[in-house]
Amino acid sequence: MLEIEKIFKKIIQRVNINLRDLGFDVSPFVIGHVELEQMNKFYAFYGITSDIPLNLKFTHSSLAGSYFLGKCQVTNSLLYKSDIRGDELKRKGCTFQYKNYSIELTEDELFDISTSALIKTLVHNFSHDPESPERFFIKNTLSLDYANIHGSPCDGCFLGPFATIDLTSMRDCAIGTYSYVQAGEINHLDVQPGTIWVNSPGHFNFFYQFPADKLEPYIHHIAGNKPQGLLVDFIDSHKESFNKVFDTANVEDTLQVPETASLDRYAVVQPETEICENVLVAQRAYLENSYMGPGSNAQENCFIINSHLQGCNVTAHGAKIIEADLQQNVFVGFNSFLHGTPDSRLSVGKGSIIMPHTIIDCKEPIEIPAETLVWGLITTLDELEDNSISLENLSLVNTSIQKKNMHFEGRGAAFVDAFNHRICHILEVNGAFFHQHNNNVKGHAQNNRKLSLNNIQPFLFGELQGVYPNITILPPREP
Amino acid sequence: MKKHTVKDLMVPISEYATVPLGTTLFDAILALENAQENFEHGKYHHRAILVLDKHNKVVGRISQLRVLKAMESAETDYSHIEQLKMYKFSDAYISQQREKARLNCKVFTNTLLKEAAKKLVDDFMQKPTPDEYVSELSELDLAMHKMVAGAHQSLLVTQEDDIVGVLRLVDVFTASFHAMKELDIS
Fold first, then answer.
1. How far is Cα A422 from Cα A144, in angstroms, rounded to an integer?
2. A225 falls within a domain
3. Same domain, A31 and A164
4. The domain containing residue A429 runs over which residues?
5. Distance between CA A290 and CA A305 in Å, rounded?
6. Distance, CA of B9 to chain centre
7. Is residue B91 pLDDT above 60, yes or no?
8. Which is higher by pLDDT, B28 or A244?
9. Fewer beta carbons below 10 Å: N end or C end of chain B?
10. Which of B86, B93, B97 is facing A189, going by the closest CB pair?
11. Are residues A247 and A361 in the same domain?
12. Which residue of B has its CA nearest to A187?
């Protein structure tokens, strides 16, 4: 048995042991889907910059096609085309506020990934676990294609394809395909596919369940098969463009990018795209024939095609915007799929919030009014009525409201405030407000310009093929 | 005053509506109708059906309310509401949603009535609890206490290990009232 197979077998066993109470077996979802023979075909790469602490340690792991930035250790793990982005990890001396506790960090935070398999997964932000402020752990965990682990330490968990866990400490949980969870802390939960859950205990609780039959054409994952559906087909249809940027040693600059904006070397940009000031385009983002207004961003695995983003638009990890016009300050949440067509364009009014994991697949032109919260699955104007509420009306809710499959309990104003605060914070750390206020404090858009990238390779032959040598990468020191 | 035992007032099981496990809701109601037609014990009709296993032991009971509940729940699937508990919605919110779903539920449509008719008694019968049994030799006092304490509409009457009859609330009530009338209270 190859070493990589032994590592994978051990990971599956560890995850299954953790999920035994749920009776959840990950094997049928990964065996046959995760192709270990692919693991020696792609190099891994890491970013270096003077602004972010560098400390990488890889031990007995495979890292195929994955990207690392910041402080990270990976042990006994398989990472395939995953992004481990440590530009928002907490720094030594800073204070992390958790409820009434001000927790001071005694060292720089690090990602600690052990006995885990992450497939095309994004890991970003910082640990929100007050018990582990300096260590963002991902342990005995398995995540599949286009999952997002965002500010969420995980121990003994499974994330299905396109699942997102956000600002939540998670132990012994299974998060179903295309589910989004932001709930602070969860244990021993089996979250069904297509569940959208945002809970802030004592303040508000938002829940939406996609009808299984309606979600199926877009994304489903049956045990024994690979993930299938329009979302997968859409991404696959753009695969070739990414192969080109990853296979080329030096990419030619064909696009004028302002000095305050950054375009990652591993992003794809097709004509006629315009990038304005303070724009951030992350690796594995795809832009085509679109306008990225000042302060907008396209994060990892985003697609923006034939669209106009007026400015300060957040396109969160994995979101896709096609044939759409977004006015200022529109937020499009994780893995959302906004799909207009030339005959049925989508327009989104100023300040609207598209909830994470929302699908808008226009069968007719759809216009979303300004300051509206939108969720779920929408293909017509009637469905928009069932799956949206104005932020003003939501702010008036003091007990509960239900619309079709959406349930909300708590104070609507607290929900709106929390979202608006977070969107503002995202724009700030991404550098959208550089030069406007904030004493010229730079964000990712400005800092990423100073990033350089190095490649590392695995063993190509023999028992260790696909596994990387044990490597430690540190900043230079005098001998 | 006449002292009754349970045996004096019970309806023998042979006169009661009984159906085996595996019977549909519709056939169970037909059995009840049939039992009512053949029953000449006073002016009160049977209101329940007993369910027997393959050894003719009573394993469940179906009251009229139970039948209506089975018909009502033919359409209402509360699973999507029940799951809200897992997602930390309050008990008050969940019961409000359950009530809303019940009120919106249609029962009297051809499709749903047909669907309900096919339900098996096994799925909606009520299994007897230990306080629903009373010996045929017991005095009526004990039977009355059990009915009041457990809010039971009837009790299953035992003869050693066998069920030999059903003691109905209506018969206990009538006997109590007659006993009171005999006292010539004015």
1. 26
2. no
3. yes
4. 235-400+413-447
5. 6
6. 18
7. yes
8. B28
9. C
10. B86
11. yes
12. B86
Whether residue A275 sits in one domain with residue A146: no
Mean of the pLDDT values across residues A154-175? 98
Q: Which residues of A touch B (CB under 8 A)?
A: 183, 189, 192, 195, 197, 199, 201, 205, 207, 209, 400, 402, 405, 407, 409
Same domain, A395 and A464: no
B5-19: per-residue pLDDT in tens?
Answer: 999 999 998 888 899
Q: Give the start-to-end residue ranges of the domains of chain B.
A: 6-69+119-181, 75-117
Residue A436 pLDDT greater than 70, yes or no: no
Q: Are residues A184 and A268 in the same domain?
A: no
Structure-block tokens of residue B62: 């179906």
Q: Which candidate, A163, A205, A198, places its Cα nearest to that of A183?
A: A198
| Sign of the CA dihedral running A36, A38, A43, A45 | negative
Residue A206 lies in a domain: no
Measured distance CA(A64)–CA(A70) in Å, rounded: 18
Q: What angle do CA A218, A159, A60 make, to 5 degrees?
A: 130
Name the 3-class secondary structure at A47: strand
In angstroms, the first-to-last Cα distance of chain A is 41
Among A97, A110, A168, residue whose Cα is nearest residue A137? A110
- The Cα of A73 is separated from the nearest Cα of chain B by a number of Å equal to 33
Phi, psi of A432, rounded to the nearest 5 degrees: -65, -30
Whether residue A467 sits in one domain with residue A364 = no
Distance between CA atoms of residues B101 and B103, nearest Å: 6
Q: How many residues does chain A have?
A: 479
- Are residue A242 and residue A187 in the same domain, yes or no? no
Using the Cβ of B101 and the Cβ atoms of chain A, whether some distance falls under 8 Å is answered with no
Nearest-Cα residue of chain B relative to residue A208:
B84
- What is the reported pLDDT for B75? 56
Same domain, A53 and A79: yes
Q: What percent of chain A has pLDDT over 90?
A: 86
- Distance from the Cα of B4 to chain A's closest Cα (Å) equals 56
Number of domains in chain A: 2
Are B88 and A400 within 8 A, CB to CB?
no
What is the maximal distance between C-alpha atoms in chain A? 69
Residue of A183, A192, A407 with shortest CB distance to B84: A407
Contact A409 B86 (CB under 8 A): no
Q: The CATH number of the domain where A49 resides is what?
A: 2.160.10.10
A57-82 per-position pLDDT tens digit: 999 999 999 999 999 999 999 999 99
Scored b (16 or more CB within 10 A) or e, A118-142 reads: bbbbbbbbbbbbeeebbebbbbbbb
Q: Is residue A204 part of a domain?
A: no
- CA of A195: which chain B residue's CA is closest? B87
Distance CA A141, CA A123 (A): 13
Choose, out of A186, A189, A198, A205, the residue to mutate when testing the contact with B (most B CBs < 10 Å).
Answer: A205
Residues 51-70 on B with a CB inside 8 Å of A are none
What order of strands is seen across the sheet that includes strand A174-175? Answer: A78-80, A117-119, A142-143, A158-159, A174-175, A190-191
Tokens of B8: 């004096």
Determine the CATH number of domain B6-69+119-181.
Answer: 3.10.580.10
- Give SS3 for A110: strand
